[in-house]
């Protein structure tokens, strides 16, 4: 048993293995790799049942923007608990959901003025896809119900979301149940041909979409993309020119552009929303994860007036008849409002830009390691590939990183650093050192 799993950890682990079916996990693996019961969090740090601390270098699946137990978010939720914990949103409303919807609309300069809420990212994907297809039905073009997705893209693991997810690990077992989208080439700048710039690589990928729509636009409702970074597919980064081209192509062929910013929204790429760096707005914007700073489940789809107006009718069947029990939960909305307050009050985007430049220098020794390739950064996300990674690399790396005091979980042969925004220079240096230690351990027989 690893040194980081003590007596109290072992007892709780045994109970968890009997009762809890853990996500994205082959449960048999925990016969040799013990679970780590966490009991508290503070800023970027987590503490386990034996009192050992770990720096959460992946923001617990990319959700904890400002770390654990961020005081202003805690205070907002506590205040809301004394007022209203939940109410059905069909036929009713409340101040937190109205205020959040208004502020999210304002964050898009009013371009996306209508907010539809759910609880998780996959549900947001489902909502956007259903809205798009239903829009075209209401518009008298019911044949436009197909979708385009991007090679290596990830949009969730429910049935509809799997249809536009191109990660075989998640999709293969359910292939017979999935209505698959048409997959377009990735604009991943690692795919650039010799002498081709990142922007030219993006243009080449967008041109494939243009050619497909030239022949099939009457069948396609929307294309869904992860702006600037395809996260779960290996932190594949692309030039903003791809989004500019897609916007123009979608306008030309009357196809919706769905921006899945569930992972990359709220400052992760260096702007509040990633698509801003292309100077465009999508028809649908999907948000979740960092929306509540990692405190409560909440997702939202923002849509344009054009989309909303197509559903506004006396005929109930033309309405968007989709619902979730906890839609627009007041506690989650207050958490999200607190997140937006922190962005405004602390000038988070500007602070992060300065911090990222300093962190690049701290990461320089790791970036120059001969075992890695494509060390890259967009905003507050760093990533690198390990082409010659040995068998079992991801597990060996993450175990060694935990031993070194950092929570780092590779995506196959891709290692990424996505810490909470509050980490300081010393804490980031610790993450880099833990990654170097883990890399050494993963290559040790």
Which features characterize this protein?
445 residues; alpha/beta; Aspartate Aminotransferase, domain 1; Aspartate Aminotransferase, domain 2; 2 domains; 7-stranded mixed sheet; 4-stranded mixed sheet; globular; disordered N terminus
Please tell me about this protein's structure:
- With 445 residues, this protein is of the alpha/beta class.
- It has 2 domains: 7-69 and 347-442, Alpha-Beta Complex (Aspartate Aminotransferase, domain 1); 73-346, Type I PLP-dependent aspartate aminotransferase-like (Major domain) (Aspartate Aminotransferase, domain 2, 3-Layer(aba) Sandwich).
- The chain is built from 15 helices and 16 strands.
- It has helices spanning 7-19, 59-62, 71-81, 95-107, 121-138, 159-163, 168-171, 198-216, 241-253, 305-309, 330-346, 348-362, 364-367, 393-403, 425-442, and strands at residues 38-42, 45-48, 53-56, 114-118, 146-150, 182-184, 220-225, 229-230, 236-237, 256-260, 284-287, 299-303, 373-378, 381-385, 406-407, 414-417.
- It has a 7-stranded mixed sheet with strand order 4-12-11-10-7-5-6, with helices on both faces. Strands 1-2-3-15 form a 4-stranded mixed sheet. It has a 3-stranded antiparallel sheet with strand order 13-14-16, with no helix packed on it.
- Helix 3 runs antiparallel to helix 11.
- It is globular.
- Residues 1-5 have low confidence and may be disordered.
